[in-house]
Each structure stands twice: as C-alpha cells, then as structure tokens.
Amino acid sequence: MTATADFIVRLAETGAMAPTADNGQACYIDWDGRTLGLAYAQRHAASNVFGPDSHGTLLGIGAVAENISAALAANGLDAPWQWAEAGGQPYGTLALPSLPGQFAAPAGPAARHTNRFPYRKAALPPALLEKLAAGSQGGNRVTVLSDAASIKRLVRQVRTSAEARFCNPALHRWLFDCLRRTPEEVARGDGLDMRTLGLPPGGAALLRFIADWERMAALNRFGMYKLMALAEVGQISAAPALVCITGGGARRDVLEAGRLLVRVWSEINLAGVAVQPFYVVSDQLNRLHEGILPPGFEQKIGAVEAEVGQLLALAPGQQLHMILRVGYPTVEPVRSRRLPLDQVLRHKAFSKDLASSS
C-alpha cells in the first residue's frame, strides 16, 4: 500500500470512530484520489428508522466529518468541508491534493466512548463545565445543567419521551435488530453489544422476553412502557451534570451539531469523565413534527417541547440535538466495535488491500 493510501486508510479509520445512531454506521467514506466524500450507507434496510436526511443520520455524518477534520489538523492540514444542498449526496466533500508521508493520530477520536454504567456522585470541576459551556459550532451551542432542579426538569422530559418510544413498534424492531448478543454477532462490528448496556441483574432476560412486539404491545396495556421508561431514567437522574447540544434544525445546522457533539464528547472523555448519550427526547420531538408519534402522545410530546424550549432558552427554530449524561466512571466499559473498513471506505485502487487486511 502506498503512503497516500495508508494515510487515507488511517484517516478513514479515525472518521469511522465517530458515534452513530445505535452504532448503525450509516456512512460511506469515498476517496477518488484527490477528494474525500461522505455518503449515506443504507444498512439494515428492513428495520432502519433513520433515513439519509433524518436528524439522527445527519448528526452521525457530522460526527464523522469532525473526526476527519481533527485528524487533518493533527497532521498540519486545514481542508474545509464543502456541504451539499438539502437532499444532495455526498453530504460533503473536502479536497486533499497533497498528503504528508506519515499519519499522526489525534487523541480525541480514539478516547471517545460510551459508558452506560453508574457514575460517581462527585461534582465535576467548575472549570471543565465552564469550558464545555463555551463550546459552539455554526449556530449550535452547549448548555450545561448542573443544578438539581434543572436536571430534574429535563429528566422528566426524558421519561415522557421514553414512554412514547416504548409504544412505537418501528423503534422497538429497530432496537432489537441492533442488539448483538453472541460473540459471532458482536464480531460483525456494528450495533449494540449487550455488554455495553449496563443492564441490571435480569435485564438481559427481560429484553429477550419483550423482544417480540406483539408481546410488548400486550404488556403495554398494563403499563409496561411506563416501567421501561422509569428504568431508562434511573442513571440520568443521578447524574452530576447534563450537557445539551442545541441549535437550528436545517440540514447544515444538524451536520454542524454532529461536529460539535463529537468534539465536546471527546473533550469530556479526555478529561477522564464518562459520557452516555440520550437521544430519546430529540427523536420524539422530531417524530412529533413528522406526525409519526404513537397514538395518544402528541399532546404529551408537545408539552415536552415547550418545557425543553423554556429550560434551554431555545429561540424559535432551534431544537435540542442531544443530551449527554456525564460524571466520573465507576466501571471501564466495553468499547463498541466498528465495521471492517472495507465496508466503509470505498476506493477501487486499494479496496483489495483493505479486504485482505480487515
């Protein structure tokens, strides 16, 4: 493999470390010899609830772009992304007419990870929280909630949103299609390794029991969705701080929000602080506007939107992109895997090298 090919491979590996919705990795990284591009990858088509222009997909694409930009900066390169108009593919491209002979890996992408286990109750350093709160990207910004009253208000919105999610058959199927239980399934390199979920005793057995939607729907008539939502907020309720990414809802805004998200997340992890993302509120608010909530939840999620807007001081047209639960870890978690690079990086000139080395 040539020095240029090796650099692009390392660059793509760094980009692919970015977080994506339920580790679905709906992104191709394309290289034509001079230009790098990011395009939509349709994976798990039968159950996937995140299309090419969905909010969740755009956040993930932005995160991949930011990891690539961080890697270029670590190698002394400053190549600006050129973003396509709404609906265009690839999402964005950057020109790389010349590359260094050696690749220097940035620290942030490799350090970033998800920790769904309990955190210590110790407060985080005010200097770190102030630094995070100063973060921005495009029209997006960071809001840090560290007082008990504000955290409690936001957690109530997480709980209501989780109730709606557990009543949605499409989201139910997507979740269980993403779970990876056996070593063979985990080795595929995508989805949610059960070992990363931080489940309580009996949690895995419960998930197996409710995996069938017809059974879950029957149990929901007796309030199962409320119990599941209550369990969902158990950890976030005890968080010493919540970090929220907010901003505009246009395609470019969401891409830039993904860039800000992964940069802040990496910075938190580099400081020795754990992170768990909570996307359920943003997801249900998007579904409210798309008219695809489960029946009976429109008014409840409308109230969530009003409360979130007030709590986070959102201007008209702005939205919540992501909530991060942060705190000092008590457990070092299993890291999520990634797909083999030959399923992500597309370049005919060295695709065989990628396949043979993966």
Report a brief summary of the structure.
The chain contains 14 helices and twelve strands. It is of the alpha+beta class.
Q: Can you walk me through this structure?
A:
44% of the residues lie in helices and 15% in strands. The chain has helices spanning 3-16, 55-74, 107-111, 126-133, 148-165, 169-178, 183-186, 203-210, 213-220, 224-232, 251-270, 280-290, 298-311, 351-357; strands spanning 27-31, 35-40, 82-83, 92-95, 136-137, 140-145, 179-180, 192-193, 241-248, 274-278, 318-327, 345-346. Helix 5 crosses helix 12 (280-290). The mean pLDDT is 94. The chain has 358 residues and is of the alpha+beta class. The strands form 3 sheets. The chain has a 5-stranded mixed sheet with strand order 3-4-2-1-12. It has 2 domains: 3-111 and 352-357, 3-Layer(aba) Sandwich (NADH Oxidase), CATH 3.40.109.30; 126-327, 3-Layer(aba) Sandwich (NADH Oxidase). It is globular, with a radius of gyration of 20 Å. GO terms for molecular function: oxidoreductase activity. This is Nitroreductase.
